[in-house]
Amino acid sequence: MAIAQQLDRIVQGVALWNEWRSEHPDTPIDLSNSNLSELDLAGVNLSFAKLNGVDFCDSNLVAADLRCTNLRGSNLSDADMMGVNLSYSNLTRAVMAGVNLSGAKLQRANLSRALLVGADLSQADLTESEMLNTKLRRANLQGAKLGEADLTEANLCEANLQSADLRHTILSEADLSDANLERALISEQTVLGDAILLGAVMPDGKIVE
Fold first, then answer.
1. Looking at CB atoms within 10 Å, which of 77, 81, 141, 148 has the fewest?
2. The model's pTM
3. pLDDT tens digits, residue range 107-146?
4. Could you tell me which residues are beta bridge partners of residue 135?
């Protein structure tokens, strides 16, 4: 089915789209480079879809099923994605400034070089995710699960990491200046080699000077 036909179908509403997908589970979904901005797509089933370059800006994707999708280079700025399932998805170089990903499932997702400035990732599950050189300045990661995630060279300046699970997390060369790590869980296996910690509030409440 051509991209234009699938686009026409999804804009008719989530209920009809999800019903069609349940009836055609083996049909490949390709909406690459489509404009799906400012739509109500709460609960939509787009699992295993090709969504690279799609514009989801300001859309409602609450509780959507986006498992195993290709969202490389997509625009998700200011989208509401609370509780979304993005496990195993490719979000490299995605633009996600101000996105709401609170409580989202992002296990083993690839967010390398994505722009997540000011994003809400509170209580999100990012276990074993890949976030190389990801821009997370002023992001809210309070209570997030980041065990075994790789945040090498990530920008976490002024990020809120209170009570985050950072056990076995790789933070080599990450910028954590002025970040808040109060009550964060850090183990001996947490890698902080060459990380910038100036002004950061550490788990014990002490500020690095």
1. 148
2. 0.95
3. 999 999 999 999 999 999 999 999 999 999 999 999 999 9
4. 115, 155
